[in-house]
Amino acid sequence: MSFLSRTLQALRLPLFCALLWWLPVGSAQAAVSCTASMSALNFGTVELVDGSTPPSVNATLTYTCNNTGNSTESLRVCFNIGDGDQSLGSFDPRLMKLTTGNNTLKFRLFQGTSGTVWGSNGNAAVPNPFTDTMSIARRSSITRTTTMRGELLALQGTAPPGQYTDNFGGIHTSITLSSNQGSTAPSTCNGSSSGNFPFVVNATVAKSCLVTADPLNFGSIDGLPGMGNRDQTSTINVTCAASTVYKVGLSPSNGSTVGAGVLAPTGGVPGNTDTVPYRLYRDANRSLPWGNVVDTNTVTATGNGTAQALTVYGRVLGSSVNVRPDSYLDTVTVTVTY
After folding, report:
1. CATH topology of domain 209-337
2. CA atoms of 34 and 67, how far apart (whole Å)
3. Do domains 30-205 and 209-337 have the same CATH topology?
4. Closest Cα to residue 244, out of 202, 205, 284?
5. Domain boundaries, the chain
6. Looking at the record's lineage, which domain of life comes first (predicted)?
């Protein structure tokens, strides 16, 4: 009996020592990590030729932080964004690139509704990542969301139409974090890396045109036969997206397809039904009528994103004038086809 008892006591000692070694490690070791996903930032189809700023758009960052340890952990986590595959070296503004060429489109990324540019730790140009702090109970998780706001810069009318993209994959995003046991979060988030949250920014620049026109004013003329022709000019300004081929047609209110209109009295002389015939031309010699039959008597040009001036050559036919004194007016419709 005495021998057996001593043997059992000897066997208990290694087992007891092993338990003492295992228990402290399990209670002191924390396993905190975060995962995240960002939705695409899609500006949609935008028209840029008027020089205005397109509406801002939003994307959503959804993130979950887990604590697999046995104690409450206070966490500081940073979500870092770099420049993107197509914007290498440009952080504010960042750049989307045309998928079929090297043309670029400038945009900015902000944290929610604030004016803070979304950047990353250690980046001198954009040093502010989105940062969050939280206290996570043992063996639990917390899920939250935040908004990223994107804005295109104004005055980018020279950007050619097409699809523009910047891809924030791989090294262009990261999650870094630090944690403490207890209720006080660390002052930095440089403790460890916890993956990334790739996303894409894209926009489609549409073919678009903007047109303005100055009045064609023939001034005061003699209303008697034989006065001779009265020639005047006007300017049409057309702004079309770069590389966009456009065709400009002119249509007097009488429906003429060859630019042969008539000026009608404005009502200053009661009962006056006289009219003044005029013609519209594409050339200074007034030999090429300007009408609205595309590719026959219209003017063709290629946009470059800035206003392009086209001259309208007008003529009142003096040989056809025999009208009462009055003010005469007509409305010409400018049609841009592209």
Report:
1. Immunoglobulin-like (2.60.40)
2. 9
3. yes
4. 205
5. 30-205, 209-337
6. Bacteria
> β-strands 199-205, 41-46: how paired?
parallel
- Cα 126 from Cα 137, distance rounded (Å): 33
State residue 93's pLDDT score. Answer: 97
CA distances from 59 to 30, 88, 92, 237 (A): 32, 21, 18, 38
**DSSP letter for each residue of 259-293:** SEEEEEE-SSSTT----EEEEEESSTTS-SB--SS
Alpha helices in the chain (DSSP H): 2-28
Query: If we measure between CA atoms, which residue out of 330, 329, 331, 320 comes closest to residue 222?
Result: 320
CATH of domain 30-205: 2.60.40.1090
pLDDT digits (tens, 9 = 90+) for 26-61: 333 458 999 999 999 999 999 999 988 999 999 999
pLDDT of residue 7 exceeding 50, the answer is: no
Alpha carbon of residue 124 to chain centroid: 25
Burial of 266: CB neighbours in 10 Å, binned 0-12, 13-18, 19+: exposed
Amino acid in the structure at residue 42: N
- Residue recorded with tokens 């009962």: 271
pTM for the predicted model, two decimal places:
0.80
CA proximity to 166, closest of 80, 106, 79, 243 = 106
